[in-house]
Design goal:
The complex is a heterodimer of chains A (302) and B (80). Chain A has 302 residues and is α/β, with parallel strands linked by helices. Chain A has 2 domains: 2-112 and 235-301, 3-Layer(bba) Sandwich (FAD/NAD(P)-binding domain); 128-231, FAD/NAD(P)-binding domain (3-Layer(bba) Sandwich). Chain A has helices at residues 11-22, 55-67, 132-135, 151-161, 179-186, 281-301; strands spanning 2-7, 27-31, 43-44, 53-54, 72-75, 79-85, 88-93, 98-106, 110-112, 128-129, 143-147, 166-170, 191-194, 197-203, 210-215, 221-225, 228-231, 235-237, 267-269. The radius of gyration of chain A is 21 Å and the shape is elongated. The mean pLDDT of chain A is 95. Chain B has 80 residues and is of the alpha+beta class. Chain B has helices spanning 15-26, 40-50, 70-77; strands at residues 6-10, 32-35, 57-60, 63-66. Chain B is globular. Chain B starts with 5 loop residues before the first strand and ends with a helix. The chains are: A alpha/beta (302), B alpha+beta (80). At the A-B interface, helix 2 and helix 3 of A face helix 1 and helix 3 of B.
């Protein structure tokens, strides 16, 4: 039995691991992957100590730091359920393993929100992508659609305008991203904007062939021929593993107080998955540190 | 020595592709990189094999893995 299991390999989880290791807490770090959302962040310009650094490189530096400490790490498997059994916690994984500990820190972050329309799930990796920076270059010379109006969507549009034949921008209201990004893309002759439209279906046999969108005012349907669809409509917290155990807020984040404590004693949450305001690398890292120190206090009291 | 034939299909901007290459290099696994943003033949080869259009795609002796999955890579390559 471990004293502490940290679930998640992003800035919050890795920082928590360093703090736990320095307190010599018998710790397991369990993560689907190391780096989390930061890996696909092109440039980070607001993490102190670096004027700018690639997201992936910053996470490599985090990983180097945790390697300095003798903590157990299980990377590549995903925690799917945390349960409280008498005085300890059990963490079950997708690959069928289970681990036990006296305290748990959930730092599982957020993942891309899905459209939840017919055809989407079937065509993931077949034209439907949630990673424009990864898959964008595959659609050189093709027609593509970018769904969403925030900064991620605008960055995807900006990149795709350089290589695609046409970019359709589909958004339910108006652009909510930074004005500087909107200005950069909006005058491009290759861009067609569909404001106040929603996606109703994605079609195609083997690969994406069409996207069907609906005008939210008139109800009119329109079919656009596309090869690629980039879904950039925000993020959803990875909190399913504690659903029914800890209290979640209305958007699915794990409710915490300023000590990273959840509604369950011994269960802490940190970073983007927790109900803290502002989702930033530096905030997640700081929150991970706080959670580990609080977990240490909790373990000492047992 | 690992004698398996490993190919990595990548795009130049893809951070997860870099992670895969770093993983292979740190485990001394030789691989062939194919940039599918430029190389149309490689792109078609990847789609025909996997019926997927996503990177990174890694083929190991004809078997394939999509995305950076350390555990799956270790299993398929026989790395402990």
């Amino acid at each position: 039995m471990y004293d502490l299991i940290i679930i998640g390999g992003g800035p919050a989880g890795m920082t928590a691991a360093v703090y736990a290791a320095r307190k010599k807490i018998n710790t397991l770090l369990l993560a689907r992957e190391v780096g989390g959302q930061v890996i696909t962040t092109r440039w980070v310009e607001n993490y102190m100590g670096y004027q700018y650094i690639e997201g992936a490189e910053l996470m490599d530096k985090f990983e180097e730091q945790i390697r300095q400490f003798p903590i157990d790490r299980k990377i590549g498997d995903e925690a799917i359920k945390v349960s409280r059994i008498d005085s300890f916690f059990r963490v079950e994984t997708r690959l069928g393993d289970s681990y036990e500990s006296k305290a748990v820190i959930v730092a599982t972050g957020k993942t891309s929100r899905k459209l939840e329309v017919p055809g989407e799930a079937r065509l993931i990796g077949r034209g439907v992508s949630y990673c424009a920076i990864c898959d964008g270059p595959l659609f050189a010379g093709e027609r593509v659609a970018v769904i969403g109006g925030g900064n991620s969507a605008l960055e995807a549009i900006d990149d795709l305008l350089k290589i695609a034949e046409n970019v359709y921008s589909v958004l339910e209201a108006n652009y909510t991203g930074d004005a500087i990004l909107v200005e950069r893309v909006i005058t491009s002759p290759k861009l067609t904007v569909f404001r106040r439209h929603k996606v109703v279906e994605i079609t195609g046999n083997e690969m994406v062939e069409q996207i069907i969108i609906q005008d939210l005012e008139t109800g009119m349907l329109r079919t656009l021929p596309v090869k690629g669809i980039f879904v950039e409509i925000g993020l959803t917290p990875n909190s399913d593993l504690v659903k029914g155990l800890a209290t979640l807020n209305s958007i699915g984040e794990i409710e915490v107080n300023c000590n990273c404590e959840t509604s369950v004693p011994g269960l802490f949450a940190a970073g983007d998955v927790a109900s803290i305001p502002e989702k930033q690398i530096i905030i997640a890292a700081g929150d991970g540190a706080k959670a580990a120190l609080q977990a240490h206090r909790y373990l000492q009291r047992l | 020595m690992n004698s398996k034939q490993v190919k990595v299909y990548t795009t130049p901007t893809c951070p997860w592709c870099k992670k895969v290459k770093q993983f292979l290099e740190s485990n001394s696994v030789p691989y062939q990189e194919l940039n599918v943003a430029e190389n149309k033949a490689a792109r078609d080869e990847m789609v025909n094999l996997t019926h997927q259009l996503a990177v990174p795609t890694i083929t190991i002796d004809g078997d394939y893995i999509i995305g950076y999955n350390e555990k799956a890579l270790k299993e398929k390559l026989g790395i402990k």
